[in-house]
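User: Predict structure, ligand 1-deoxynojirimycin.
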Amino acid sequence: MSPRWYSEAVVYCLDVDTFADSNTDGIGDLPGLIGRLDYLARLGVTCLWLHPIHPSPRRDDGYDATDFYNVDPRFGTLGDFAELLHQANNLGIRVIIDLVINHVSDEHPWFQSARSDPDSPYRDWFVWSETEPADRYQGMVFPGEQPETWTFDETAGLWYYHRFYDFQPDLNMANPDVRAEVKKVMAFWLQLGVSGFRIDAVPFIIELTVPGESESPKDFEFLTELREHAAWRRGDALLLAEANVEPANLVTYFGDSNGSGNRINMLFDFMLNGRLVLALARQDPEPIIEALRDTPALPRGGQWATFLRNHDEIDLSRLTAEQREEVFAVFGPDPEMRLYDRGIRRRLAPMLGGDERRLKLAYSLQFTLRGTPVLRYGEEIGMGDDLSLPGRQAIRTPMQWSSAAGAGFSAAPELVRPVISRGNYRYHKVNVTDQRGDPDSLLIWFERMIRTLRESPEVGTGSCQHVDVPLPPGVLAHRADAASGCMLFLHNLGTQPAVVDLGHLAAEADHPNDVFTDREYEPVGKLDALEIDGYGYRWIRMRRNPAG
Ligand code: NOJ
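Assistant: Predicted complex:
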């Protein structure tokens, strides 16, 4: 076992409002989630990441908070949240929450006070300019939905900066009072018992915005401060960051230049995500191999969080324009499937044409590549999307528990968002209850896969390398090595069956055997004639070190 719990975690993320409704008001809530913890425990989830839970007008699904010290009353009370932590802990599930402190809602009392009174103690908590900044139309994160990053506020008579929507004014992190408040917010939730935070928009949090300068300097020391603070309050607190930046700049988020991991513990692997999707589109593992090669070495304790789908669009902006077009052609042929000119607003099951063999291949890949896997709710049953909903809401529909009205999510006549009730992914067809009773379902497959991963600690804690020998088209061989032993993985991204010769590894193996496969194969033998079907996968335990 690694001393760092997050290295061997399986993270599951969800929006409380679309997961389970306990009081029939049509909105998911904390008691509803508590009632489903047993489901998550059985699935093998060890860490729950909750999307924003704070009070909010929810113009950006809660990424626009009005109070960092409470939970949205629609979800329940702080008491319900404490109960959730207790019940989750009893089942061995940790809870982390989204920490969205780059900005607040424009309805937040801090901004209301700041805009209306030049002498407000909160005036300098935001980023203002007296004149129209030259970079007003630069750096938008939501092109097409967001025309500018500086907006004139009539009440204040000033321009304010907002990296995201205009209703999300940025906090001024150069202000020591703001920094102190952020630390207080973190301490509050750690004291309640969360195991850490998924920190939203980290590259922008550390931006020291200068009006007119689109490339503002970054203050990485603030991350060091946050880590130090969190660790003093809870030694094993996790900081999981969203930082979709160039590979060359990634390591600085983990630690300073002397190689120590004194900042963020875990970063989402956006680079791998884009390449994985490209590899699936091409049915060729080369982009994954490139991602493994290009990945910078991390300081001790630094960890990647792998994902295939999250709550946003699949962001293809790190691919070249040509590669992006390739992916669009295969997975987003229809313009309504695309978003912000850079991404795809679909769930994985419809992207892969509902082909379960391919879905399993894709998730087997994600879960065996270096790092800690993050799974978005509903992916484990192959939920679909609703492209009639605007933007990212297409993939934020209620969880499909059963074929009862309201998908077992809620018995209310009106729901926070419609359930998917038409097409191949309608809740009558895709739901937990039906899959629970079917040993061949995707859900039961996920349970088995995650259980096998728990017996393969090398993936989360070890090194991950591509086995660099010529292989048949479509096939990827990679290995994970740690003190506990060695695992070898074969994945066939293509449709043609293949035979793989990895005989040169036999000397390193000790009674190697398949531990998880898409079908029963001939025994591994000397590793020199390993069959692998189209869309097949084989997890082979090469060696287990007794004292590992
Ligand atoms: C990133 C989040 O993932 C996204 O959903 C949100 O809209 C922006 N940050 C703004 O908070």
